[in-house]
Design a protein that fits this description.
The chain has about 270 residues and is mostly helical. The protein has one domain (about 5-260). Helix content is about 75%, strand content about 0%. It has helices at about 5-35, 40-45, 50-55, 65-75, 85-95, 95-100, 105-110, 115-150, 155-180, 185-210, 225-230, 235-260. Helix 5 (about 85-95) packs antiparallel against helix 10 (about 185-210) and helix 9 packs across helix 10. The longest helix has about 35 residues, at about 115-150.
Length: about 270
């Protein structure tokens, strides 16, 4: 691993990382402050006023009666597929494909670092960025929850829920990294890195609309992410975590191996 290159990646991506982390923390704080154990039924009644298909597509079937269920419904039903996804897509595009497209990869390869070392450093940079995103936002949510509702948050399940989401984003990041390693142009890298995760989200939303379209979400990687089953104590989330880890390891390893062997337009 090249620490110099790693530091450059931090400097290059710190602005978007800070913005998206702060926005996600803001949503966490807002949602936690909205929680009122005595008014969750009223909030569920408000949901009944909206079209059922739209509510199910966004993953807002009901808010739940516990703090963990409330946070899960709001943050992990739809918002979890927005801000972390943007962060993952942007950073994994920048770390390889953007350098190749601009020609700056030639300068990196002229250093004593091998291709494998460069690609490995970039992979670690991508993984570190999303890992620290979840560490900061999870810690922030725990602090706000304990200040506002001491002892109400099921801490172990909440932490496991975020590990579950993090592993999902390791696999999503793997898609972006793999696309970045095989692409010579930014537009191809972005087409794959953006197109596949967004397609998964569309399939997931369509599959949530009703029984008629439920089969569609089986085409989505996100169907392996089910916060409700984790809260209920099902074994399904652990199968999903294992699948996410295997997919991520395969994509990152494959990306590094391909980058090491392929011809670069430099």
């Amino acid at each position: 691993m090249s620490w110099s290159l790693f530091k450059v990646n931090i400097k290059t991506n710190k602005f978007i990382w800070m913005v998206l982390t702060c926005v996600f923390c803001f949503y966490f704080a807002s949602i936690i402050l909205m929680f009122d154990p005595e008014k969750t039924e009223a909030l569920n009644e408000v949901l009944d006023m909206f079209p059922e298909g739209m509510i199910k597509a966004l993953g807002f079937d009901e808010f739940g009666t516990t703090l963990l269920a409330f946070i899960s419904s709001y943050m992990y039903g739809f918002l979890i597929f927005l801000f972390p996804m943007v962060l993952s897509i942007v950073i994994n595009h920048r770390i390889i494909a953007s350098h190749v497209d601009r020609g700056s990869m030639a300068y990196l390869l002229s250093t004593p670092n091998s291709r494998v070392r460069i690609a490995l450093t970039q992979a670690i940079s991508g993984l570190a960025s999303i890992t620290f995103f979840f560490i900061i936002t999870t810690s922030f949510a725990i602090v706000v929850s304990e200040v506002m509702f001491p002892g109400l948050l099921e801490m172990s399940k909440f932490i496991m829920l975020n590990i579950y989401a993090l592993l999902m984003y390791y696999s999503i990041g793997g898609i972006g990294f793999f696309a970045s390693c095989i692409a010579n142009e930014s537009k191809l890298s972005l087409s794959i890195g953006v197109g596949i995760p967004v397609a998964f989200l569309v399939f997931q939303m369509l599959g949530n609309i009703g029984e008629k379209f439920s089969w569609i979400k089986n085409l989505s990687l996100y169907t392996l992410f089910d916060p409700n089953k984790l809260i209920e104590g099902s074994n399904f989330p652990y199968i999903g975590m294992l699948a996410f880890a295997i997919i991520a390891a395969t994509l990152y390893t494959g990306g590094i191996l391909i980058f090491n062997k392929r011809d670069l337009p430099i």
